[in-house]
Amino acid sequence: MTEKFIRTNLKYLKGFMTESSLSAARKTHVLLGDFMAVSHRSGTIHERRSFGSFEGEWIIPEEEKRGGVILYLHGGGYTCGNIDYAKGFGTVLANEFGIRVFCCAYRLAPENPFPAALEDALSAYEYLMQSGFSHDKIILCGESAGGGLCYALSLKLAEQFIAQPAGVVAISPWTDLTLSGRSHKENDEIDPSMTTERVRFFAECYSDDRENPFVSPVFFEADKADFPPSLIFAGGDEVLLDDSKMMHERLLAGGFKSEIIIRPNLWHAYVLYNLREYRSDYDRIGRFLDRRLKSDAQRWSRLDNAGLIFPASKRRGWHNIFRLSADLFEPIDREAMQSALEVTVKRFPLISSRLRAGFFWYYLEQTAAPEIISDGPYPIMKRRFGEVRKCAIRVLYYKNRVAVEFFHAVTDGAGGAIFLKTLIAEYLSQKYGVFVPSTDGVADRLAQPTADELEDSFAENAGAVGSKRSSDKVFHLTGVREKDGFLNLTCGILSANDLLSRCRELDVTVTAYLAAVMTMSLINIQRRKVNSLVKRKPVRVQIPVNLRRLFPSSTMRNFVMVVNVGVDPRMGDFTFEEILGIIKRQLELYVTPKNMQAAFTTNVNSERLFIVRLMPLFIKNIVMKAVFDSVGEAQGCITVSNLGKITVPDEMKSYVKAFDFIIGPQARSPHNCAVCTFGDEMRINFIRRSESPELEREFFRNLVRLGHHVVVESNSKDILQERI
Fold this sequence. Notes:
CATH architecture of the largest domain: 3-Layer(aba) Sandwich
CATH topology of the largest domain: Rossmann fold
Number of helices: 23
Largest sheet: 8 strands, mixed
Low-confidence stretches: 719-724
Number of domains: 3
Radius of gyration: 31 Å
Shape: elongated
Number of strands: 23
CATH class of the largest domain: Alpha Beta
Mean pLDDT: 89
């Protein structure tokens, strides 16, 4: 837009604004906001937030070029401007500077006079800090009353000993509500956008105590004040010109940094209109942001203690991958889901990451959101390890299903579930305008990740003494491998409430019950395959334990340990009740904070050994792969990974039909098993790379014999013909 075009229109609006009622002026402000945003809105994502006393809105550019956030406080004489007006220039800021913007639509006078606006601005600042933005990643920006409010907020922060933001961008700030500046007289006739009479009316609406520095920050006392560096813009013809000049001079006199740009012949808050002739002002703002905001280096981290084993144990055609998916009631909009993914991955920087190899260790490096792709004919399709190293997750869709496949080095099932639910929440927000609160494992998509979420909780919770690793040989299923690498998936669906009722009658957990059924199934298969009792081997099931339930951790990285439970069939025949009782007691014995700590302390201490730290990565890989093969999956016949009950906020329930959880087959054995529950539906998924469905057939038959109704679905090439 050109100076001539805006000046002509402002002259028309000036008469209307100065003579109209307050309600009419408020409506005009909304129109101005729409006018400012019209050329920028398509490139931004908007998320509304309600704070009780005021409304806020996040504005996120499609391409974030700068880390941090701008807290934008709108103008309007403290009497005009709502969230629709605020997001007008907020959208301009987000798109022009590639930075997140949070708009605070503070309460307005005269209904809510001073200090309501200042209280709301302080709440917004504290909200940003609680969302993970450090003070030096926040820039205050405001025009007119909003510019004055930026300085009043800095004074309030100093009073309450809260750290100052990185800087202030003040556009024609209203800093003197006593109207003492000479420009009120000198420019009253020539300012095309504002009159002194109107400014006086606004001041009377806002406060009677107009020499109070929290109302007129130009009257601050230097010994009680603190201000970050400022960049001030003002028009040479505006009635508030002296407000900008006096504030700039007082800042310098008080020992604070300030820079002022005065454009001759221009009007109040001219910067808002993005004038073609003065694009250099936006360049100045960009340079100011670059100077004041700490550079965001790409986030990286060493693998957590559990994650170290996964890249080392890889082999041709096998990587430790697991998959979480959700079925929605309506078809997936790929474009909206891609947009939601781009927001979500910024919240979880070490999940959407690439695996890099250093000289001594692997490490994760944050990367951009991957492209969402169509789902394949079977889950966890084979990936070259080179693809995993480019991005550790893969996001897929098919009809109404969205799925995320995770390389286990970046997170575990609990972390993956939070990621998926947060992705769906953002998708619902963008697609349907649904606000989903940050409950039930849905993270605040626009907050910054906390240090606790990024920590290696194994290292943080390791003890002094570790436990010995077992090396007993156990029974392993074999089978003819599918020639083309096809993975067979068989899913048993049953009532979670019915199963839970049975478990309560028996005083056991659901996990213990399912592990007992699995153990019994493996015993039966081994009995058919091995006639000699003395030649049979122990049957053990590996149970991953979510350590967040035992230790104070909110990490989004791996924090699980596996316990092995089961029986030795060489001791004789076992009834189901005997197996269940044994496994119940084993879990009660093993799954305690002290025993779990001792188990992972052994691994942490091994990692910390000086000789191990000095080993080049290729030698570490050889050693860790040997350890994995001897005391990892080799210690169990199969894994039964029970993710537990998945819950979502009420706002998501009418959109989400089902969840599913699948883990890839073991490195050497053809099977694996994963379980999850959503509502009353429990899904037990067997994945298999061999031809025979012997194990899943035995398992589901045993569930039916125990009185459970099971519906079986399969993608198998040879669908089970018989009824189970």
